[in-house]
Specification:
alpha+beta, Helix Hairpins, 4 domains, four-stranded antiparallel β-sheet, 11 strands
Length: 533
């Protein structure tokens, strides 16, 4: 509110001078009309009825004064407050004389003083407006007293009283109204300035964006484009034709098809052979216009390639580190065998070392090959309870665990998930292998529990075992490759499970629940996710 009042003070003087100029123009026109109506004997007939000579002199004087006051107002002689008080007092005096010369308060000329009081309330603040109303009231009362003393006609004290009360009421109401109007004007000016600044800021941001922005109306005409869009699409800033199809035919055709079917995706394309490939996303506004966001896919591809190379380098270094140890053991055992001085038992031991470490190397290589052969996902709807029951039966047939050791706790019997069945099977199989390694079979109940529950748009599958859980040191690197505290483990199983989950839009987390059991939790989508490929 303080800012609004500051704005009000800034604009008050300029507004008041404009208002005073308007009122001076009104005075000039009023004086001219009053003088012309008297000399041309135009209605109303009561003008100058009581004292034609006094009316004529006063009207001529009022006209000359109006011309002079208009001139000094335009030139802004003296300060505003002095001019306002001086001019309004002159108005009250001369109009009162004209009322007297026309027959007194019985005429309707008293309403001219109401206009003067309104002008005073608008032009001067606070008590000065009441001062103008008081002078006008004294003027009409003086006219009434003068008529009583020197005129044989009837006296209109009641008219004078009513007119005086009208002056004061008008002054107060106009003062309140003018203050509200000025504050509203200041607020509007401030909001207009804020909107202009915001529009300028938005224009600056859009023009500097690396993402191209193109606004196209419902008939295919380009309404707005930023610098990035013009560069990526080879558009001129002031094209001869604003039709999108004339400038970028491929994009124009794709937009037309997209408007018919909004779920239809845009395909990447090149506007010209020497320009980068771009990808387009669109938003349809309520006004019917389409906003196109144009991305340079070459930059994204470059970043993805850099990330891929960095990941490949890290994976290669980890593989080299993991394979070096078993290869060293194999090489050392082979050197000892080549000496030919070992006993039969020693030869058997060395051969066992070679076979065991060779198997470990082969396991690492097979896991990596399995990761590299990972195909694109083929998602479908899975009814989890029946699907998991089939999977557990198959798992129990290949391991030493029984139905007593593994239980399925279904809290959402009709829960479904939308993802790739084969990849989900691989994830759960890996997690079951991990759980069965650490779980301790007991007679009191199952050592592994699979619990299905549903919350909102997600299905939660918890794989819980009664093992000791993951150590604090391993928790931070649990899903990284070649990180395992399991004897003989490669550390690739959980890494592969996390990769497959991310590809399917599934969140895989490890928690240690309140009853001290180890738990891997999967949060799976029940609907098709946009961008899932």
């Amino acid at each position: 509110m303080a800012d609004i009042l500051t704005k009000h003070q800034m604009y008050e003087d300029a507004t008041s001078w404009r208002s005073l100029t308007v009122f001076a123009t009104y005075r000039f026109l009023l004086a001219a009309i009053l003088l012309a109506a008297f000399h041309l004997e135009l209605p109303p007939e009561f003008l100058g009825e009581s004292s034609p000579e006094i009316y004529n002199i006063t009207a001529q004087l009022y006209f000359l004064v109006a011309v002079g006051l208009l001139f000094i107002t335009v030139q802004r002689f003296a300060d505003l407050e002095t001019q306002v008080k001086f001019q309004l007092v002159i108005d009250i005096v001369l109009i009162t004389v004209l009322i007297h010369a026309s027959g007194g308060l019985k005429t309707s000329l008293g309403s001219l003083l109401v206009v003067v009081v309104v002008a005073g309330s608008v032009l001067v603040p606070g008590r000065l407006s009441i001062f103008i109303a008081a002078i006008a009231t004294l003027a009409v009362l003086s006219e009434a007293v003068y008529s009583e003393l020197f005129s044989t006609g009837s006296t209109h004290y009641s008219s004078a009283g009513i007119l005086g009360a009208t002056f004061f009421a008008t002054a107060v109401l106009t003062q309140i109204l003018s203050r509200k109007i000025i504050e509203s004007q200041a607020l509007a000016e401030a909001r207009a300035a804020d909107i202009a600044n915001l529009a300028m800021l938005n224009s600056h941001i859009i023009s500097r964006m690396q993402t191209g922005v193109l606004v196209v109306d419902n008939v295919g005409n380009i309404q707005l484009s930023n610098h990035a869009a013009r560069q990526l699409l080879a558009l001129s800033e002031h094209p001869s034709s604003r039709v999108l199809t004339d400038n970028v035919p491929e994009l124009g055709n794709q937009l037309r098809l997209w408007r018919r079917n909004i779920s239809r995706p845009f395909t990447a394309f090149q506007a010209q052979n020497d320009l980068p490939q771009v990808a387009v996303n669109a938003v349809l506004l309520e006004s019917g216009e389409s906003v196109l966001y144009i991305e340079n896919t070459s930059a994204v591809a470059q970043q993805a390639q850099q990330l891929k190379l960095a990941s490949l380098g890290q994976l290669t270094a980890s593989i080299a580190h993991e394979i070096r140890n078993p290869l060293s053991a194999i090489n050392h055992a082979a050197e000892l065998l080549s000496e030919g001085q070992q006993t039969e038992a020693e030869i058997t031991k060395l051969t066992d070392i070679i076979q065991r470490h060779s198997g470990r190397v082969n396991t690492i290589i097979e896991t990596i090959l399995e990761m590299s052969r990972r195909k694109h996902i083929d998602p479908s709807v899975i009814v989890l309870s029946s699907w998991l029951q089939t999977l557990l039966t198959e798992y129990e047939e290949t391991t030493s665990l029984t139905q007593h050791d593994i239980a399925l706790d279904v809290k959402a019997p009709l829960a479904t998930a939308y993802l790739d069945q084969e990849q989900l099977r691989q994830v759960i199989w890996n997690l079951l292998d991990n759980a069965s390694h650490y779980a301790t079979p007991n007679r009191d109940g199952p050592c592994i529990v699979l619990r299905i529950s549903q919350t909102g748009d997600e299905v939660q599958l918890d794989i819980i075992d009664n093992g000791p859980g993951v150590s604090k040191e391993m928790t931070s690197v649990l899903f990284e490759p070649f990180q395992s505290d399991r004897q003989g483990g490669t550390g690739l199983g959980l890494y592969l499970a996390r990769e497959l989950c991310q590809a399917n839009g599934v969140r895989l987390n490890y928690i240690f629940d309140k009853v001290g059991k180890s738990c891997f939790s999967l949060h799976m989508p029940i609907k098709q996710q946009e961008g899932l490929k």
